[in-house]
Amino acid sequence: MIPVLFKIGPIAIHSYGLMIAVGFLAGLYFVQRDAVKRGYNPKIFSDLAFILLPLGVAGTRLAHILMFPGEYSWSDPVGWFAVWRGGLVFQGALPPTLLFTVWYLRRHKVPFWPACDIMFPYVPLGHAFGRIGCFLNGCCYGKPTSVAWGIPAHRVPWDTGQPPTGSPAFLEHMGRFSDVTAASHWSHAIHPTQLYESAGLLFLFGVMLLLRKRWNPFAGFTMPVYFVLYGVLRFIVEMYRGDHNPVHVGALTDQQFFALACAAAGVILFAILAIRARRRPQPAGNPRTPLKQVR
User: Fold this and answer.
1) Statement: the pTM of the whole predicted model exceeds 0.85
2) Of the residues 29, 112, 180, 281, which has the fewest C-beta atoms closer than 10 A?
3) Sign, Cα dihedral of 174, 244, 24, 195
4) Is 171 exposed, middle or buried (0-12, 13-18, 19+ CB in 10 A)?
5) pLDDT bucket at 292, cuts 50 / 70 / 90
6) Checking phi first, is residue 245 left (phi over 0); if not, alpha (psi -120 to 50) or beta?
7) In the chain, domain spans
8) Closest Cα to residue 56, out of 108, 20, 4, 5?
9) pLDDT for the residue 85
């Protein structure tokens, strides 16, 4: 795990933040490219993206605070805002960003559902880079495992400017296993769940692009497809997580309930949009059929 890649004077370049930035810029590039292909002004989408980024980060941080209140204290006020240390719950970004997007697109007279087909295929692409950042940061780690690809966590993280304490997985194992002590260098091997999810998100990204190109049944279909596929992916990955996501009902973690709710919402939304499309035909927003230019 390499939470800090390097330093430029007093400024530390954190791997977590850098990967989020790389994912954001990659997604933005392709969104702007597709906007041009479909006859829209790409600046509308780039301006929207730069507003959604801080709004989404704020939503993910708030969700983490609500789920893990014990990790925050007013004795460390910086910790409430130090997103470079990790501590983001992805689902928390969806409500504020979706609500703002609806308002923003209406204000700029851009049809919402065709615009979703421009943007949503690239959400898993950006998220995949973010999960690589999680891996480098050491958060969102997996359960102990004996599989050949299991990866142990190091005792001391890369230079962060803080006293060396060890990665989250190492500290958890030090309090759980007698053979992992403060003098040890490695935790037990753990499932690299961050990489599992990153690979799954890249697969989801490819599937959504293929569906948009070959199927494209109605405008906006990419949103419910994303909700269903990501819900299934997250539910499965959660089975291998070892960072003790909260459990309030039965044996399922809160994240698994969120994943099921996400998939169910996708199924319902897909049915609503399909019925709506049959009753009132509308442009599907296929990149081979440019839509009206919006400036």
Assistant:
1) yes
2) 281
3) positive
4) middle
5) very low
6) beta
7) 4-143+191-279
8) 20
9) 66
